[in-house]
Amino acid sequence: MSLSKTVKRELYEKLVLADRIDRMIYGRMMQGKLIGFYHPGEGGIAPGVAIGHHLTKDDIYTPHHRAHGIPGMLGKNVPVERYLAEHTGKETGCCKGRSSFHWSFPEYGIYMASGYIGFQFAPTVGWGWAAKRKGKGQIVWCSAGDGGYNQGRAHEAMLMAMNWKLPVVFCCENNGMAIHATVASMHPTEHISSLAKGYGMPAVIVDGQDVFAVAEVAKKAIRHVRAGKGPIFVETKTLRFREHDIGTPDLAGHMPRSEEELADLRRRDPVLVATERVLADGVLTQTQIDTIGEQADVRVAEIEQFADESTIARPSEQELMEAVYAP
Amino acid sequence: MPPEKNAENTRELAFIEALKEAYIEEMERDERVFMVGQDIQGGIFPHTVGLVDRFGPERIVDTPISESGMYGTAFGSAQEGFRPIVDFMFGGFTYVTWAECSVTTGQYYFLHGSQIPLPIVITLAVGTGQRLANDHSMGLHGSFFPQPGIKVAMPSTPYDAKGLMKAAIRDNNPVVIPWHMGLMMDRGPVPEEDYIVPLGGADVKRVGTDVTVLANSLQLKNTLEVAGKLADEISMEVIDPRSFEPFDMDALLRSLEKTNRLVIVDEDWERGSFAATISARVMEQAFDLLDAPVTLVTFPNMPIPGGYMEPYIAPNPDKIETAVRAVCR
Question: Domain B203-327 belongs to what topology?
Answer without folding.
Answer: Rossmann fold (3.40.50)
